[in-house]
Every structure is written in structure tokens, then in C-alpha cells.
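Hi support team,

I submitted a single chain yesterday and got back a structure, but I'm not sure I'm reading the C-alpha cell output correctly. Could someone confirm the output below corresponds to the sequence I sent? I've pasted both exactly as they appear in my results page.

Thanks,
R.
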Amino acid sequence: MKRPLPFHSNAVWPPPWVMVTFVISCGLISAVIWLIAAVARMDPQTVFAMQEIVIVWKVLLGAAAGFYAVYRLGRFHPACNRGYREWLKLSPWTAAKPLPLGPAHLVWQDAAVVGALAAIAGYAHVNPLLPVGVFGLIYGGGMTFLLGLTGSGACLVLGFLWPALMLPAMSGWPMTAIIVVLLAVIWLGHQKSLKRFPWPNLGEKSVWQTDITIGGMPNAGWPYSRLSPKFSSSPVSIAASFLVSILIGWWFYCLNVYLQSPPEMIQFPPEVILVFGVAAALFRVLGYCMSITTPFNLWGRLVTGRLIVPGFDRVFLTPLAVVLLAIVGDVVIKHSETWCPVAESFVFALLWFVLLAGGPTYRKWILTGQHRYRTPPISNTNKRLFKSI
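Hi R., thanks for writing in. Yes, this is the structure output for that exact sequence:
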């Protein structure tokens, strides 16, 4: 049996009811325009060019392009459909064969649909790039997210390519080259992702995440719910922390340069870094100490003379380092002058690296930290445990 071409599929056309609805909507708008032109004795092209009519066409064409992008991913990508994904696991399908419901990657029918929307946009005095851009952003962004969800390293490359489109220096041919590279990386990443199918634990529940029931109760209640076995993920590695922080810094730099370019001319004040550092440090402390507290309070520390409890107070080292780096970074940024966007991005990336890589890890903190569990509100406990006997 001859294998069909990888860039051809008759299954990806929009549903008939969607096409009928779109055609009827276009017909109604056109009829209203011709009626207004006839009543007002105006040239129909003049009515077509009216700002209010152009906005209506923009909304309709943008919504149609966005719906088609969501339909292409939600209908044909196995990661978006659990039933489809489970059926593929039990079938003899492999990545060497096309997907049974149709390809999730781009085919020539996609160009036909988006091209038809662009042609209608030109007829309606709308920029033809509007539906093309909406479809590309939603489809490309969705594929990037799905590649990350399925554990593909291509999402990291795409994460560096997407913000480059905002740089003013990339306008023209460089932007076209970046878009071509984006499409190539999405294609290759999608093919490699299918070869790793089935994706482990995608949308599945680990056995350790199952609630423990005692006497028919929906949960064990406090303190047993805190002491019960739970599924624990691995801590973020140093390499992953470094790459993620560099990626966040690159996004911050591109966004900062884009906002400073005319006509926006918006610049992040240096104080933003300081505010972020303080807020991030506070959230990290809250995340670590929301349900646990120090082994004894401040008065106990004063009485015993143990003002510092290393086993517990180590949780404050990383937040304190983040705040100090934010203060120093704020001073550096204020004296960076023309290098301000670069300095802000570097400090922002450094703060994220310390937040992600700084110890202790949450798993180690829970297992070895010198702390005690905080008594929760009565609404969060198993009330039957507190009844008098």
C-alpha cells in the first residue's frame, strides 16, 4: 500500500457547519453593506472602507483563523485528546505511520484555508496578514506548549526564537528567516515527539497521588494527610535552572527592547527588578513555610539562647540572597546608561537562577528540615478526629 504524502490530508478541512456559519456571516455582512450603500446612495467600496465595517471584518476573520488553529491542534494532536491517546497506546500504530485521524503538522490544505481568509481580508479592506498572523501565533504557540508537555527539547529552542520576532532589528528578511526556522523546528520536534509516544504520565495520575481513605472518609485528615505517602517530583537541576533563567532573561530583554522602540517608548523602571526580587523572595518563603513553622517561637529562642536554628533558618538563605542581589542589581542598572536593557535582563536572569537553583530543595526541606507542622484551620481537618470520646 502506498503511503500518502506527509503534507496532504483531506481530513483537516474545517467542519461543514463551521464553513456554512462563516459563509452565512460573510453574506450577512456584505448584504448589510450593500443595503447601507443603496439607502445612502453611496459607493459600496466607500462603505467597505468605513472604520466600523473594517473592525467587524477584522473580528470575524481573526476569530475564524484562531478557531481553525485551535481546531487543528485539538482535533488531531494526541496530546489534546485523552481518549485518542489511550486508543493509540492499544493500537499497532507507530511514528512511521501517519496519525489515524489526520496529521497535526501543517499540510497544504492549511495554506488553502488561511489563504482563502487572507483573500477575503483583502476584499474587505483588511490587512491580509491579519488571519495569517493569528493562525500562525495560535498554532505555533500551541505546538510549542505541546512539545514542552510531551518532553521535547525543541520547545526550548522555540522559546529562544519566539521573542526574537519582537526585536526591531529583525524586521524584514531576518524575520522571514526566523519564521522559516520556527516552522522547521516545530516540524522536527513534532516528528521526534511522536517517536517517543506514548508520553509517560501525560494526563495520568500516579498511584502515589491517590487519596488515602480511612473509614470511608474522603481523606485521612490532619496530621495523617501531611504524613501520608505522596508523589514527589525530582528537584530542578543546575543545568535546567541555568537554561530556564537564560530563557526568561532573553524574553525580558526582547520585551524591553520592543517596548522602548517607537512609537511605544515604554521602559521598565529599575525599581521593577527590586520589587520583583522582594516579591519572589516572599513567595518562596511562603511556599516553603505555608504549612510548617519553626520548632519553637521567638520567645523560646531568646530564653534558650538559640537565636539561630540552622536546620530551620537555612530556608531563609536563598530569599535573602535574592533580595541582596536585587538591591545590588538596582544600583548597577541605574548606572548602566545605554546598556540598561542588557543589565536589566542579566539581573533578572540571575535572580531567577538563584530562585530555581538555590537550596534547599523542597523535598530535602520537608524530609530533613528542623520544623514542626502548623495546625490547620478546623475547616481543613477531619473533624471526626477531634470529637470527644
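A quick pointer for reading it: The chain has 16 helices and two strands. Let us know if anything else looks off.

Best,
Support desk
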